[in-house]
């Protein structure tokens, strides 16, 4: 299998959770990046414990053979002015540009329940209710995506549980109503499965518009609990709804996903992003499980 245009990265959320700092609060930045490198990854995304001084960060990553490939951006186009969104977006672009990244990620958090511990994720998700809501939202994404493109980067929007872009129907509309030169997708198989979609069909449909890929698996028994007990997204994570590719407790068809990637023109990063409670799932151990699984499927 030929994956010469693919690089493998990992997200620090496996070590320290930005949304729930109590998960992995004991894990330091140095431990995180050292174990990323030890597990065999060459790139990473940015977490809340990463130093913001780019010289300090570059040195720490360079010692370990790592590079920054992306960072989450919290779009708030549904609740804040475009000027505020542009200011925050541009600041993050400045940082990522210095760090050599080519992608800026993130999803719409303005009207989302993803960060609320007590709101059932399947009942309190963000919505775009009117034509005007959609027009304002997609206009903002196009404008920000153009800013990114003009600086040699891509806006890769992340569909996410609890947000207004969660299902394939919503993703279709997002992509159909934004400029394909400005707005791309950050595909995530775990979030599509969580939303009740077929992640293989989704990747096959969206691979041509995908600029960044997150891979995680889902534990079906925990997902059923999320439905039965009306759990929030954060409670689902704490209870282990996600795990890494290669974990036998997962259920996603990764060989089919990699076959789609192999046959496509996709060039960029595949990132392990499987947030769990580090006290229950040792981050290095699970990162190595995923890394070995990826190697078996891709040869890299």
From TrEMBL:
One of the record's GO molecular function terms: myo-inosose-2 dehydratase activity
Top-level taxon of origin: Bacteria
Record-listed E.C. numbers: 4.2.1.44
Domain called Xylose isomerase-like TIM barrel: residue spans: 36-282
Keyword Lyase among record annotations: yes
A Pfam family matched in the record: AP_endonuc_2
Keyword vocabulary terms for this entry: Lyase
Protein's recorded name: Inosose dehydratase
């Amino acid at each position: 299998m030929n994956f010469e245009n693919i690089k493998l990265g990992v997200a620090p959320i496996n070590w320290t959770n930005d949304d729930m700092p109590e998960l992995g609060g004991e894990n330091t930045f140095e431990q995180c990046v050292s174990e990323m490198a030890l597990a065999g990854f060459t790139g990473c995304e940015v977490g809340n414990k990463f130093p913001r001084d780019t010289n300090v960060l570059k040195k720490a990553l360079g010692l370990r053979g790592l590079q920054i490939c992306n960072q989450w951006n919290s779009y708030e186009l549904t609740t804040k002015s475009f000027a505020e969104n542009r200011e925050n977006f541009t600041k993050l672009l400045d940082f990522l540009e210095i760090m050599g990244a080519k992608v800026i990620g993130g999803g719409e958090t303005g009207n989302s329940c993803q960060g609320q511990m007590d709101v059932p994720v399947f009942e309190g998700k963000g919505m775009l209710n009117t034509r005007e809501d959609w027009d304002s939202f997609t206009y903002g994404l196009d404008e920000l995506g153009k800013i990114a493109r003009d600086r040699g980067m891509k806006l890769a929007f992340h569909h996410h549980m609890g947000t207004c872009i969660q299902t394939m129907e919503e993703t279709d509309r997002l992509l159909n109503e934004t400029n394909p030169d400005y707005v791309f997708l950050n595909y995530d198989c775990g979030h599509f499965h969580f939303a009740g979609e077929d992640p293989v069909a989704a990747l096959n449909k969206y691979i041509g518009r995908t600029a960044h890929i997150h891979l995680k698996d889902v534990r079906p028994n925990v997902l059923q609990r999320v439905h039965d007990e009306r759990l929030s997204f954060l409670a689902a994570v704490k209870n282990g709804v996600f795990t890494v590719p290669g974990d036998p407790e997962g259920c996603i068809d990764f060989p089919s996903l990699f076959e789609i990637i192999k046959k496509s023109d996709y060039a960029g990063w595949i990132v392990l992003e499987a947030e769990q409670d580090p006290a229950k799932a040792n981050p290095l151990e699970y990162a190595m499980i995923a890394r070995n699984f990826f190697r078996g499927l891709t040869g890299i």
